[in-house]
Amino acid sequence: MNLGCPTCPDLDSLGDVVYDTGMLIALAEKKPGQSVVRHREFGRKGLPVVPAPVVAQAWRGGASQARLARALKECAVVCCYTEREWRRVGELIGRAELPAKKRPDPVDGLVALTALQIGAALVATSDPDDIAAYLAQMPGGHSVIPVRV
Q1: Under a CB-based contact definition with an 8 Å cutoff, are residues 57 and 107 in contact?
Q2: Cα separation of 149 and 19, whole Å?
Q3: Does residue 123 surpass a pLDDT of 80?
Q4: How many angstroms separate the CA atoms of 117 and 52, rounded?
Q5: What DSSP string describes 3-35?
Q6: Among 9-18, 51-60, 80-89, which is the least confidently predicted range?
Q7: Higher pLDDT pick, 90 / 3
Q8: Which of 2-16, 77-91, 121-135 shows the lowest mean pLDDT across its residues?
Q9: Model-level pTM greater than 0.85?
Q10: What is the spatial distance between Cα 139 and Cα 99, in angstroms, rounded to a whole number?
Q11: Is there a contact between 45 and 15 (Cβ–Cβ < 8 Å)?
Q12: How far apart are CA 11 and CA 55, in angstroms?
């Protein structure tokens, strides 16, 4: 990650959790319930990290996204990844042993890679088995825990 770019957050502001699309979708719901409580808990240790492609998967625009827009203001959206990192994501999704009927997802691979790169403890996800499959392909990936939201 190129966290020195002008649009990316300060490394010191990052928390120890990375959000995948499932977490953002949960935060956007009309009655987000537990996801908002967890979002507040996660934010106590710094800003939750959201890779920019995750925003693209969840964002649909309009007034219905107001809750998500507010939540994203309390997150660190990381946008600058190198070609080398995208290649690593490709390798991850090519090697991962996903649950039956699941297709490789480069955004989930990027979430797993981001979590490992920033030293995150958790990934907030609706697909913990998928994230675990990607994490299992990287040295040290076992230290990141996918948490269902």
Answers
A1: yes
A2: 10
A3: yes
A4: 15
A5: TTSTTSPPGGGEEEEEE-HHHHHHHHSSS-THH
A6: 9-18
A7: 90
A8: 2-16
A9: yes
A10: 21
A11: yes
A12: 19
Q: What is the DSSP string of the chain?
A: --TTSTTSPPGGGEEEEEE-HHHHHHHHSSS-THHHHHHHHHHTTSEEEEEHHHHHHH---SGGGHHHHHHHHTSEEE----HHHHHHHHHHHHH--PPTT----HHHHHHHHHHHHHT-SEEEES-HHHHHHHHTTSTTGGGSEEEE-
The torsion of the CA quartet 41, 47, 51, 55, rounded to 10 degrees, works out to 70
Pairwise pLDDT comparison (33 vs 17), residue with the higher score: 17
Q: How confident is the model at residue 44 (pLDDT cuts 50, 70, 90)?
A: very high
